[in-house]
Amino acid sequence: MEELELTKIEDNETLVDELKLLTPDAEILRKIPTEFDFEKDDAKEWKTKMLETMKKLGGVGLSANQVGVDKRFFVIGDGKEEDAFEKAFFNPLVISCSEEKESMKEGCLSYPGLWLMISRPKQVTIRYWTEENEELIETYEGVTARVILHEYDHMLGYNFTQRASKLKVERAMKALNKKFKKHQRLLKQQSVNINNNKEE
Ligand SMILES: [Zn+2]
Questions:
Q1: DSSP for 13-24?
Q2: How much distance in Å is there from the Cα of 119 to the middle of ligand 1?
Q3: Rounded to the nearest whole angstrom, what is the distance from the C-alpha of residue 135 to the centroid of ligand 1?
Q4: Pairwise CA distance, residues 134 & 128, whole Å
């Protein structure tokens, strides 16, 4: 019989610029990020790096300040491997929103496990610069508009919990806490069981 070979896990520590998600209490998340400077920074490289991080974290949008980068831009994407819809918005400015709104459950990578019903305009018109430093004005609707507006909140130093009523946020946080505690209890129980089995 062939012997099993252990796969050596590649150490990614050499990736100095690995972007790490900050906790929601980080000060940088409450500030308007510094304007993206196309002369100083490589927009294409930032787009790639941010999309990689976003996909790794399993999100559909990520703002630079969420990973501690003080630059005004965000990325969105559907997470697909092929024919992916991926975009970066540098120095964005929302020009107009539809009056018609829609409520949907929303999450945020900075708040793992927290889901809130948020009402947002169905349509948004946004001016921004692409990674090619090209100025565009585009209109989006549906889920894409929602993701853009969610990320745009991060560009203003806000987050989605400020778009819901305090009571709703508190309730959702409580439920999350309960779930977390239950999870911890289960983990504890499992480790007790493992240790008990060890001694036998
Ligand atoms: Zn977010």
A1: GG-TT---PPPT
A2: 15
A3: 24
A4: 8
Helix or strand or coil: residue 72? coil
Gap between the Cα atoms of 136 and 155, Å rounded: 18
In this structure, the number of other CB atoms found within 10 A of the CB of residue 166 comes to: 9
Cα dihedral 52, 44, 152, 79 in deg (nearest 10): -30
**Total-model pTM:** 0.84
Taking only the tens place, the pLDDT of each residue in 145-183 is 999 999 999 999 999 999 999 999 999 989 888 988 888
CA 16 remoteness from chain centre: 21
The upper half-sphere exposure of residue 163, i.e. CA atoms within 13 Å in the direction of its Cβ, equals 26
Among candidate residues 52, 106, 141, 151, the one labeled active-site is 151
Residue 61 CA to ligand 1 centre (angstroms)? 7
pLDDT per residue as tens digits for the range 43-84: 999 999 999 999 999 999 999 999 999 999 999 999 888 889
Q: Which CATH code is given to the segment(s) 1-164? A: 3.90.45.10
Specify whether 151 is catalytic. yes
- CA–centroid distance, 187 to ligand 1, in Å, is 28
CA 162 to ligand 1 centroid distance, Å: 11
133-152: burial string, b at 16+ Cβ within 10 Å, e else: eeeeeeebeeebbbbbbbbb
Structure tokens at 33: 């990020």
